[in-house]
Design brief:
The protein has 143 residues and is α+β, with helices and mostly antiparallel strands. The protein has one domain: Nuclear Transport Factor 2, Chain: A (Roll). A 6-stranded mixed beta sheet has the order 2-1-6-5-4-3, with helices on one face.
Length: 143
């Protein structure tokens, strides 16, 4: 009987610890998204790109197809959002943040860009991975 109680106690502690880790991860990912949103709204595209994995393996899936690599993704954003009139003010509605592997999550959401040249709205799915202690976007699907 003592062994069963000990086993159940260990199981409850493990579940509780896992939830605390997940809560901390979600909080950290939301912090990255907030920093990214603020940079975008200040027309700081390079600051916005800080949330992305600086690698040739970064994948961005947009309306025009797939773009690979951090530099190419930055060029994409600079081409399509050349001035503050285009970047406008960004807001997100986060619909879900789900754990998919020990150090990886996907984020589903909606983006809204308020701007004088016409608002832009769409949806996205981001894949975050913890790399060298920092949460980075390794894949972005935005439409």
């Amino acid at each position: 009987m003592k062994k069963i109680i000990l086993l159940l106690s260990i199981l409850v502690c493990s579940i509780s610890n896992a939830q605390e880790i997940k809560d901390a991860d979600v909080k950290a990912i939301n912090k990255v998204l907030k920093k990214s949103r603020i940079a975008w709204s200040n027309n700081d595209i390079e600051g916005f790109m800080d949330s992305y994995w600086k690698s040739d393996s970064l994948a961005f899936y947009g309306k025009k197809g797939v773009t690979y690599g951090w530099d190419n993704t930055l060029d994409h954003y600079l081409t399509y959002y050349p001035t503050a009139a285009y970047t406008g003010k960004l807001s997100f509605k986060i619909n879900a943040i789900n754990n998919i592997a020990p150090d990886s999550y996907y984020v589903l959401g909606e983006f809204h860009i308020k701007r004088d040249i016409g608002n832009a709205d769409g949806i996205f799915m981001l894949v975050f991975k913890k790399i060298n202690g920092a949460w980075k976007i390794i894949a972005d699907t935005s439409a």
